Amino acid sequence: MTDRALAVVRAGALTTVQDRGRPGHAHLGVPRSGALDAPAAALVNRLVGNPPGAAVLETTLSGCALRPRCAVTVAVGGAPSPVTVDGRPVSWGAPVAVPAGALLDVGAADSGVRSYVAASGGVLVEPVLGSRSTDLLSGLGPPPLADGTVLPLGRPGEPYARVDAAPQPAPPAELVLRVMPGPRADWFTPGAVRAFTSRPYRVSSASNRIGLRVDGPALERARPGELPSEGTVLGAVQVPPDGRPVVFLADHPTTGGYPVIGVVRTTDLPAAAQAVPGTPVRFLAVRRH
Questions:
Q1: Is the pTM of this model over 0.85?
Q2: What is the pLDDT of residues 231-273, one digit of tens each?
Q3: Rounded alpha-carbon distances, angstroms, from residue 42 to 36, 160, 205
Q4: Whole-angstrom distance, CA of residue 12 vs CA of residue 107
Q5: How many other C-beta atoms can be found within 10 angstroms of the C-beta atom of residue 51?
Q6: What confidence score (pLDDT) does residue 2 get?
Q7: β-strand partners of 231
């Protein structure tokens, strides 16, 4: 077995392997997947000298603990969290040298939801359809990490960044999502369309990598019945029968039968990945590009 590897000591609530995902396969029914906070994943890769599309680990709320079998440079970003090596505090948002056999512990997020852990060389699990990402909806890619999982690493590439700390956006105190009119906005009453972009919502604890669910005013339909299944895109805002909007994230289904009232700009979705349950949400109406 290769000595360039990470052994998972504590997998945490949900830790997955993610890269830029596998876009372009919707016609096969395959979601795009990939890191929910793509800028954070790209930054930690840059900090350790990896290309931006190298595979990293995405943790959820409770972090993870890893023991490298070789000396490795790591960086942790995304949701701010305490980071230690063999119990000694080290920098978050900066490259850190971890000796072979030492315990790297990424603690629970102080704020935000998802932290990203990059290791020099990148995680080298077997790619599926050109990506190493875990897809929770389709089951493609490696399964979520479990205690005892061993992850192979690639060979280090470029020298790691010489920085004390890299600036990163703070998790949102209020999540503002710019939304363009969707293809089925006419399925809702004028009052519901107004409420969607004028009434307050909050992030629901039922949110996951498939969709950001919100609690707030139920949106009343103008038309009964259901749509035949039709294609959906990243950022689509579907409204199921309970009337509460769901913003589709990276693991979203490629088709759906609920009407789409709007589409969130993709540049706003990284912040959605870091919005903890209870965060106020405001949908801001904008014109199409």
A1: yes
A2: 899 999 999 999 999 999 999 999 988 999 999 999 999 999 9
A3: 11, 13, 27
A4: 9
A5: 12
A6: 67
A7: 255
Give the three-class secondary structure for 182.
coil
Classify residue 126 by burial, with Cβ atoms within 10 Å: 0-12, 13-18, 19+.
exposed
Distance of CA 218 to the CA centre of its chain: 26
C-alpha neighbours within 13 Å on the C-beta side of residue 13: 12
Q: What pLDDT score was predicted for residue 288?
A: 65
Token pair listed for 91: 């920098």
C-alpha 171/C-alpha 218 separation (Å) is: 26
258: which residues sit within 8 A by CB, 6+ positions away? 226, 227, 238, 239, 240, 241
pLDDT digits (tens, 9 = 90+) for 141-191: 999 999 999 999 999 987 776 776 778 889 999 999 999 999 999 999 999
**What residue type is assigned to position 269 of the chain?**
L
CA distances from 185 to 30, 131, 181, 231, 240 (A): 26, 34, 7, 15, 13
Residues of the chain above pLDDT 70, percent:
98
Rounded CA separation 103/273 (Å): 27
CB 3 within 8 A of CB 128: no
Please tell me the chain's helix, strand, coil percentages from 3-state DSSP, rounded to the nearest 5.
10, 30, 60
Is 249 in contact with 270 (CB distance < 8 Å)?
Answer: no
- Asked if pLDDT for residue 132 goes beyond 80, the answer is yes
